[in-house]
Amino acid sequence: MPLPPPCSIFTKILKHKMHSKPLPLLLTLLSLISLSHSSSFSSCPYQSDLRVLSLAFASVSNFCPPIPAPSRCDPIQSVLLPSENLTGSVSWMVLRNLSALRSLDLSGNALQGSIPGRFWSHPALAHVNLSSNRLGGALRFGAAQSKIILSLDVSANRFTAVSGLSRLARLEYLDLSRNSIVGVLPDDLPPLSGLRFLNVSHNNFSGRVDDMLLKKFGRSAFIKAGINIKFVDSAASSPSSSVIRNAQRKTIRKRSARLSLIIGLGFVALVGILLFCMLCAVRRSKKGKGKERKDVEEAERKEAETEGRWAAEADWAEPENDAAAAAAAFRELARLRHPNLLPLLGYCISGPNKLLLYEYMERGDLHQWLHELPPGRPDVEDWSGDTWELGDERRATLGDWPTRHRIALGVARGLAFLHQGWAGSGRAVVHGHVVPSNVLLAEDLEPRIADFGKSSGATPEDDVYSFGVVVMELLTGRAGWDECSLGPARGMVREGRGLEVVDPRLTTDGVSPETEKEMVECLRVGYLCTAQSPEKRPTMQQVVGLLKDVRPASATSSSASSC
Ligand SMILES: *[C@@H]1O[C@H](CO)[C@@H](O)[C@H](O)[C@H]1NC(C)=O
Ligand SMILES: *[C@@H]1O[C@H](CO)[C@@H](O)[C@H](O)[C@H]1NC(C)=O
Ligand SMILES: *[C@@H]1O[C@H](CO)[C@@H](O)[C@H](O)[C@H]1NC(C)=O
Ligand SMILES: *[C@@H]1O[C@H](CO)[C@@H](O)[C@H](O)[C@H]1NC(C)=O
Ligand SMILES: *[C@@H]1O[C@H](CO)[C@@H](O)[C@H](O)[C@H]1NC(C)=O
Questions:
Q1: Which of 48, 295, 491, 541 would staple 38 via disulfide (CB 3.0–4.6 Å)?
Q2: Among 176, 203, 223, 224, which is best to mutate for testing ligand 5, by the most ligand atoms less than 8 A from CB?
């Protein structure tokens, strides 16, 4: 049943009750109507805007709502609250409902939290000053989003990334200075033609700044803008740049042609070696190799049965004299079976050629998955729409929190299994090179550790440390951790500010306090694992326990149970 227009209800009830208590009734009615019909009841948007404003700042202390002016009816166009000692976090998506808002100045306060990308799809916002707060996370401007922002000052905050600025076609003033923004110059800058003021000083950009940029914005716009910034002569990149670029493109094309040729040849050679190996294996098995070989096969079959999934294996080629040791090592490796280890299906030694046969992992490695197919890649995804109304499966492929936790736990389980050593050897198998690119992902995103068993001289504690770094990378979404960058991040976790380093892609959509707690706890595991002194680090077995405790619900659902 369609509702009658609010005004008719209004007048009816008003006529009815006018004689009794007109004023309070009128006020309640006004607020009721403005709440439920703010779009259709447009004759006095000011009142509804006031309510929206109070809601938006509900968890901000020291916010004093403006005193309502009864005669005022035009919508709120500016919210200017500089240096009001505001602390807490603004509900940005509620604030976004002030649809006539043109100017927003919240500078010089102590506001926290991150700004959801969809906030920027505001239809009218032109001047934004959020300078000198404690805002963090990423600043993301999606496809259909605000093209009318003229000035944006987010200096002196804790933003860590910025994307989609190129969509702010009318931007004239941009101050990103004094943040921790990791980005690339000039790719991440808005269109330079309209820009009159720019400051990217004191950030973590990389890339190049040419003469033209320097001339236009001055050297002081690029003070300590990052460590890898190159200042280049624009002559090299202006008039004849297209010629150069074309030439570069040609070489790249040539190179990739050559590369595919090499790959093709490599493939042919591989097939050849495989065929050869199969032939020699068949010949040898015809000869019959006696008891020793049978024992090996027997043992393997048993293992295959207990695992229930390793039925089809490449036959072993028997080693020639000097390759015997290598073959023994491979055989030992091949017996290390765990759902979180990349299974060695077979190996083949033919003279100097050694060929290891692994199961193919469809999803590639963790590094690639985390950094090359990211959920928030602004140029691929539009953050403005309802792209987040996604099924579980799609969310998982976009790297949501449960998936990342499952990956961390899986890797921990695989390493714990390795460190136990397999029954026959009695000594720990140390990986020695635990990095995201050595963690492959199966179709269901279950992690499989690759490249194990080659370490020389590394200790289990070294693996724990490297695992801690993998956890940091999983949670912050940042690559390239070294002792230098790890220090500050560990500091944040120690001070209980872990949430500030969490990958913004994990929180853009808003997360529950429990999830926040889980992520912070998981960061603490990374913190423990990366302790300076090896004896302070937990064992992988303990790490498995810790990670299970972080998300108790997940521990039972995982397939691995052997450690
Ligand atoms: C700012 O607010 C905090 C509480 O939120 C208060 O303790 C402090 O005194 C205020 N500072 C000023 C300068 O008003
Ligand atoms: C914003 O306004 C729309 C209707 O105008 C309403 O449906 C929505 O709930 C409001 N959102 C918030 C967060 O207040
Ligand atoms: C933003 O506010 C700060 C301090 O309140 C001020 O210094 C700065 O000039 C403002 N930025 C713009 C673009 O108006
Ligand atoms: C950003 O740069 C500062 C120095 O300019 C450095 O101390 C900090 O570790 C860097 N952070 C990251 C995440 O690269
Ligand atoms: C940019 O910001 C830095 C740090 O606040 C400041 O030193 C520099 O003068 C600013 N440059 C311009 C062009 O405003």
A1: 48
A2: 223
